[in-house]
Design brief:
This protein is an alpha+beta fold. Helix content is 49%, strand content 19%. It has 2 domains: 190 residues, Sandwich (Jelly Rolls), CATH 2.60.120; 105 residues, Homeodomain-like (Arc Repressor Mutant, subunit A). It is built from 12 helices and 9 strands.
Length: 311
């Protein structure tokens, strides 16, 4: 999620200039709005809420994006997050304020935070996010990134008296927020289109997932995964990485670790039994890989998951 960014001073200056320019556009006639978004769309509005988490041990937000909207999660402060999309880990890292993720309609999102966190959550109707007939055939998430202007607009929204995004000024700032999202979507669309052309079809990916679930305790090779998808190993590896962002072997390790976490949380299995169940020959190798991918040993994970949580 965190990206290489300019200095704080230059970032603030850029955000201030960009916000001023957008506010000037907002004060002018509404010609800057896309015509097809003005026609017949007056009842459609983006809605924002503030998600806040104090100094509690752990919190997890889970939601499936409705089929009629895109949802945005924008960090207002620095925080450490684990972000999961559907069945895939997207990111687990220290994120800076202004980091955001836009989930597509129908996408299941899970966010875990182990410390203080504030985020703006925005639901934007599909018709506002896309213009014209584009919404009929385009559907993709905006991968974790950072945008200084979105952060500036979010903070402006929270500074406006009253409910978030309500009232004349709040409504204007919310429109600017969605307008910026459309700019980011337009920048990402060519990359998404290129990915779709070389991505692994969902039915092939599902066959690979089914194969992994059925054989997780056994040795699994690249050839095995490619055969499950019905492709040559070379084509499978390239398409799989385009689709998931992971090399096949890394994805296999993540699947083994997710199953291990479930076994650790569900029942008092021995660590050796869990290691064998998820395809490791020795407990020491299992512990090494588990700590490398999660930052904790299996026993530390067990202790934390069984610790009583404060509501």
């Amino acid at each position: 999620m965190p990206l290489a960014t300019p200095s704080r001073h230059s970032t603030r200056a850029y955000a201030k200039r960009a916000t001023r320019a957008l506010l000037d556009r907002c004060a002018a006639p509404a010609s800057w709005l896309e015509p097809d978004l003005r026609a017949g769309q007056s009842g459609l509005r983006a809605k924002a809420t503030l998600w806040a988490h104090g100094k509690k041990p752990l919190i997890q937000w889970e939601a499936t994006t409705p089929l009629t909207v895109y949802t945005v999660l924008l960090l207002l402060d620095d925080a450490r997050l684990s972000l999961r999309s559907d069945t895939h880990e997207v990111a687990e890292c220290d994120c800076t304020a202004g980091s955001y993720y836009v989930s597509r309609p129908g996408e299941a999102i899970s966010v875990r935070c182990a410390g203080p966190c504030r985020a703006l959550h925005v639901a934007a109707p599909v018709q506002l996010f896309w213009s014209g007939t584009e919404a009929d055939h385009a559907c993709f998430s905006l991968a974790p990134s950072r945008d200084a202007l979105l952060l500036q607009l979010a903070r402006t929204l929270l500074a406006v008296p009253g409910d978030i995004g309500e009232g004349p000024l709040g409504t204007q700032v919310m429109e600017l927020f969605v307008d910026r999202l459309r700019d980011l979507r337009a920048e990402a669309a060519p990359r998404a289109a290129a990915c779709r052309r070389t991505a692994l079809p969902n039915w092939r990916l599902q066959r690979v997932d089914d194969y992994l679930k059925a054989h997780l305790s056994e040795p699994i090779t690249l050839n095995d995964m490619a055969a499950a998808a019905g492709l040559s190993p070379m084509h499978f590896a390239a398409q799989f990485r385009t689709t998931t962002g992971y090399r096949p072997h890394h994805y296999l390790l993540l699947c083994r670790m997710e199953q291990a976490k479930r076994l650790i949380a569900e029942a008092p299995h021995s660590m050796l039994d869990i290691a064998l169940e998820v395809g490791f020959h020795t407990q020491s190798h299992f512990t090494t890989v588990f700590k490398r991918l999660t930052g904790k040993t299996p026993r530390q994970w067990r202790d934390e998951t069984r610790r009583p949580r404060l509501s």
